[in-house]
Every structure is written in C-alpha cells, then in structure tokens.
Amino acid sequence: MADPDDNAVAERLSLTEREMLYRVRWFIYVRWIMGSFALLMLLASWYVLGIRFRSPEWGYSLAPAMRAASLIFIYNAAFALLIHVYRKGRLHKRQIMYLTLGQIVCDMLAVCTLVHYSGGIENYFLVLILLPLVIATELLPQKLAYATAGLAVAMISLLAWGEQSGTLRHVQIVWPGERTASAPYFEPFYVLEVLASLTMMIFATVFVASSISQRLRHREAQLEDAYHRLHQADENKSFFMRKAGHEMRAPLAAIHSILDVISAQPNLSPQQQADLIARSRHRLQALMNLVDELRRYSRLRTDNSPFAFHHVSLDRLAGNAVALFRQQAQEAGLDLSARIQEAAIAGDEELLRELVTNLLANAIQYTPRGGRVDLELERDHSRALLRVSDTGIGISEQAREKLFQEFFRSNEARKVFPQGTGLGLAICKRIVDLHHGQIDAVARDGGGTTFRVTLPLDEPEP
User: Fold this and answer.
1) Residue 190 to residue 209: CA distance in whole angstroms
2) CA 395 to CA 403: how far, in whole Å?
C-alpha cells in the first residue's frame, strides 16, 4: 500500500523532481545493501580466506576496517532521516541535488577510509570508488559529475601518496602462508601506475555514463513538457465544458419556465401566448447561436480540420465586408469608413472572411449611435496590417488581458448586449493563430477600441 505522505509529496513536486527524489531514495536503499556486502566481505576475508590486515600501531586487527564499513550505515541513516524531514515540507530540485551530492561525497570518503584500513591501494576494492561516480552522473549535472570525479581522484591520490611518504600509516595485507608482507605501496612507480590507471578509468566511466545520462535527461525534459501540455489541455477541456454547460443552462432554464407557465395557465389570452412564444424563440435563437459558435470553435481547435490554404486577396475580403455592413451601420446611426491597400496572404478564404466580419460586427454592435467605425488595411514590410477601430464603449485594461479567452465577456459588453456567447473573439484569435499572425486590442485615442491583426503577406516568387 502506498504511503499517504508519498502521495502528498508527489503532488507538490514536478515530474523531474519526483524522479530525482525516487532515485535518491533508491540510492539510500542500495547503500544498505552495499554496506552489508562490505561487512560480509571483510568477515569472509578474515575468517574464511585467512587474509590479515596488519598495522605497526595495533598489529593484526579487523576492527578498524569493520568500523570504517559501519560508518556507511551511520551516515546512510542520517540521510534517510533528512529526506524524511524534508518530505514534510517543500522539496526543491536544488535541495534534492544537494542531498545527492552530500551522499556521493560521503560515499567516496567511506570508500577511501575502508580501503585505507584494508590495505590501501594494494586492495582491489579500490575500484568501488566508481560506484558513487556512476550514480553521480545519473543524478547530477554533467559539470558537477566531472567535479566529483576530480574530487575522487584527489582523495585517492592523497591516500596513496600519504601512505607512500609515511604521512599516513599503511595497513598491510598479509595473505595466507606469507611470512613477510609485501609492500608495493612504497614503490613510487607502482603508485603512479595505479593512480594513472584508476584516473583514466574514473574519467572514462564518467564520460560514458554522463553521455548516456544527458540523453536520458533530454528525454525526461521532453516527457515533462508533454505532461504539462497534456495537463493544461485537460484543464482547458474541463473549463470549456463547464463554461459551455453554464452558458447553455440559462436559455434552457428560461424556456423551461415559459413552458411551465403555459402548461399551468391554459386560459392565457392569445397576446400572452404570443409573448411567451416570442420569448421562447428568442431564448432558442440564443441557444442555437451558442451551439453554432461552439461547433465553429471546436472545428478550429481540431488539428486535422480540412482547411484550404491558398492565395487570398485580403483587400477584396475587407472591401466586401465593408459593403455588407454599410447599410447596418447607417441604420445604427454610425459612420463606417474604410481605407484599404492591396494585400494578399496565404490562407483559408472562408476563415479570413469570418475574421473580418466578426471584427466589424462587434465594432458596430458596441458603438452607440452617432459614433464611427473605421477599417484600415495596409502593407507593413512583409506583413498585412488590419485595424478595426470604433468609438464605442471601450474595454478596460484588465478586461483586455482576458479578451480572447473562451466565454469571456467584459462588464461593459454585458451591459450593452447581455446575450453574447463570449466565443466570437476566441474564434478570431484561433483563426489568426492558424494563419501564423497576431491579434490584440488597444484603447483608441478619444475613446473606443482598436483591434489590430497582423498576417504574413503571400509574396509572389520573382
């Protein structure tokens, strides 16, 4: 059964941090096994193979080597306690890295101490120094892994030359049947040979292991990025479904109430019935508009939708849109003007027509009588710049930050037109994104709003 604390910690950590913490804890479990193995090997060497360790200071004794091996259990327990304490709070990637580095340094010191009390560089167990270095390449950045390799070489060199010079007391290995213990540690060439071989082995091991670890870390970074994008997409989907259900509930509830009134009062006058039916139709029309926009937006969000991208005259689309809305603008008491330069882009003509008409329709809808709406299309180097400006209600700075989100409607817009779906500008944003452009909204001098769209021009090949 999983530890509830593990689940709580996992929720606070990123995917990479969770993986690092798992490896550090695994590192601690492995150390219990390796410490036990070291003790068993020392006991087997002494009591089964008859190997003896002799020092001028205390003679034949296994105790110093056993104490050195026992140190592994002491600091391993300390690191296990540290991780248990840190798990109660907020672990960060840097803290996990420090814990890892501390364990590796302690392991190298433990190996050097154990080797010193069991024969020095004459003991083949010296190669155990490679184990913490391999783990270092997996858990630490590449530069830090090479730094630990350099530290390991420095530790072994100090041990070897310290014993060779007599600064450190050498513990000799006495093999069974030997009357006089050999002393190769005293020969400088032997020390150089061992250190050179071990140094090459250490850095070669770190190079190979770190090269593999670098590729694995890159894959982990890609996996974490994909995980975050998937999680964000799932949250967006949930938000979209909640908002869609909320927006649909209002007209449906209104229609349900009207039907209740009609069924509860069969003696309504024809005029009352006509009013209730008109209200129902109005609500149904709002619901149908929402469903249509949901379908359009869903189609735009689908990556495999069959959009036909080809050479499109944006100036022609803009001119047709202005002609289409001119009568509506006159009836609303607005002055609609246009200044259009020739501009062509590569895109889907139907989507671009919807983009221009949506922006013009919004500008006319939210501009009071006596105002004006201006459409401008011009070339700006390699881009087409479309601006739709109005002298309408304006948009606050806080609202402009959320203007292109699904279902968002500013307080100013709700006061003027309560029945909007809040999907129109989200659809515009998606159309612009599909055409590799940009769209934003800024306050217009003197009041109102200007929507700016930039799209890459489709320049003919020379």
Assistant:
1) 28
2) 9
d(CA 333, CA 442): 24
Reported residue count of the chain is 462
Confidence at residue 213, expressed as pLDDT on a 0 to 100 scale: 75
pLDDT value of position 301: 67
Mean pLDDT (the chain) is 80
pLDDT in tens, 60-79: 888 888 988 898 899 889 88
Q: What is the distance, to the nearest Å, from the Cα of residue 98 to the centroid of all Cα atoms in its chain?
A: 22
Q: Looking at beta carbons, which pairs linking 395-404 to residues 24 or more positions away fall under 8 Å?
A: 395/441, 395/443, 395/449, 397/443, 400/441, 400/442, 403/441, 404/428, 404/429, 404/439
Alpha-carbon gap, residue 170 to 350, rounded angstroms: 87
* Displacement of CA 215 from its chain's centroid (Å): 18
How many other CB atoms are found less than 10 A from the CB of residue 439? Answer: 21
What integer pLDDT is reported at residue 88 of this predicted model? 60
Contacts of 10 (CB under 8 A, 6+ apart): 18
pLDDT of residue 1: 39
Helix axes 142-165, 188-264, angle to 10 degrees: 150
**pTM attached to this predicted model:** 0.51
Please name the amino acid found at residue 329: A
Q: Give the residue from 374, 368, 377 showing the smallest Cα distance to 389.
A: 374
Hey, what are 242's tokens? Answer: 């909640």
CA nearest to 344, candidates 441, 432, 260, 460: 460
Q: Which residues of the chain have pLDDT under 50?
A: 1-10, 461-462
* Of the candidates 77, 81, 72, 87, the residue with the CA atom closest to the CA atom of residue 22: 87
* DSSP secondary structure letter of residue 122: G
What is the C-alpha to C-alpha distance for residues 27 and 103, in angstroms, rounded to an integer? 9
What confidence score (pLDDT) does residue 4 get? 43
- Residue 307: partners with Cβ closer than 8 Å, 6 or more residues away: 348, 351, 434
User: What is the rounded CA–CA span in Å between residue 164 and residue 120?
Assistant: 10
In angstroms, rounded to a whole number, what is the distance separating the alpha carbons of residues 79 and 74? 9
Tell me 457's DSSP state: B
